[in-house]
Design goal:
By secondary structure, the protein is mainly beta. The protein contains three helices and seven strands; from the N terminus they run βαβαββββαβ.
Length: 130
């Protein structure tokens, strides 16, 4: 079972309502973006922690392996994972845990060594971080 952490921002509500996780495969310049390519690692049964607007809002379970998709006219290549979201009763304000994030920082994790969110969509979580 894999563990992942996603920064969804404004896409959180729509993706939660549709029980999915989605991203492009490339950035705006057509380059590989590590946060997007990590989507390809998600497998059925994996657990995903969802952060939007500095709040951990939900945990979901992947119902499918990651798969590719295109838009309705066939020109947008992206990644999708069907999920089942479990909204947290009390959302967790990430800034309340800044020191913990600093103390538990790891390379390529969702947070940098100052406890600030890395600028990438999806990160693999280490067990102790989850």
């Amino acid at each position: 079972m894999g563990l992942f952490y996603v920064f969804q921002g404004d896409t959180y509500q729509q993706q939660r309502e549709n029980n999915l996780l989605a991203s492009p495969q490339k950035d705006k310049n057509g380059d590989n973006e590590p946060g997007y390519s990590t989507m390809a690692l998600v497998k059925k049964g994996d657990i995903i922690f969802h952060c939007a607007k500095q709040l951990i809002r939900a945990i979901s379970i992947a119902k499918t392996d990651c798969y590719s998709f295109t838009d309705n006219i066939g020109n947008y290549l992206g990644y999708k994972v069907d999920t089942e979201y479990y909204e947290l009763i009390d959302h967790l304000l990430v800034s309340n845990y800044r020191q913990w994030l600093i103390d538990n920082h790891y390379k390529n994790g969702p947070y940098d060594k100052k406890g600030k969110g890395n600028q990438k969509y999806l990160s693999v979580l280490k067990d102790n971080f989850a």
